[in-house]
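Sync notes, pocket subgroup
Present: LS, DG
LS reminded everyone that the earlier model was apo-only. Rerun requested with coenzyme A included. Inputs:
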Amino acid sequence: MTAAEQHSFSLQAQVRFRTAIREDLPKLEWGGEYLHFRRVFQRTYEEQIAGDRLMLVADFNGFPIGQIFIQLQSLDRMFWDFRKRGYFYSLRVMEPFRGLGLGTALLEEAESILQERNYHMVTIAAAKENARARRLYERCGYRVVSEDAGRWSYIDHEGVTRYVHEPCWILEKNLRPPR
Ligand SMILES: CC(C)(COP(=O)(O)OP(=O)(O)OC[C@H]1O[C@@H](n2cnc3c(N)ncnc32)[C@H](O)[C@@H]1OP(=O)(O)O)[C@@H](O)C(=O)NCCC(=O)NCCS
């Protein structure tokens, strides 16, 4: 063991939940890990301005270390009762900050946002191979209602269409009115 390994420093972190701002967009790439979603972040931000989506981030020292996106409106048949049902997606927490309750806190914060807007129901998808995410959602009161082939596509930062095939569980939760 070296001298440096014998010492530690205790860090108390204040994490603030807020809506993403334009300056967050490059930071959401997390130093290259999500570079391929550059255009997706840009488009989602534009839809946030239009009022169709909301990008909720967990801000630590000015950096978004976690995120969850909310689809507020959709013409999709599944969400035809729009304004009452929201759809959560892209929940993620930076690896060093996992297992500390941040994912759960982001989910709960996103639920409060919908409750304040009088949404009754929320839907979320968990990849079938992502047992950890499903466990988190079920612990938070979500129940599996169906499954989906999880086929979708996006255009990456180089303009190349990427096709995703990620079979998933669809989970739902009833939201209580705000207190
Ligand atoms: C899924 C994900 C968002 C969870 O985020 P997280 O911040 O680790 O979530 P939490 O800390 O709230 O919960 C995770 C675990 O930590 C535990 N935990 C929560 N608070 C804790 C605390 N204060 N101390 C110790 N453990 C804690 C929870 O019980 C949970 O345990 P489990 O995995 O056995 O169920 C994160 O793992 C992630 O970003 N994964 C990659 C992206 C992804 O898969 N997203 C989901 C898309 S469907």
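DG: Residues 91-93, 98-104, 126-127, 130, 132-133, 135-136 surround coenzyme A (CB under 6 Å).
LS: The first strand starts at residue 15 and ends at 19.
Action: DG to write up.
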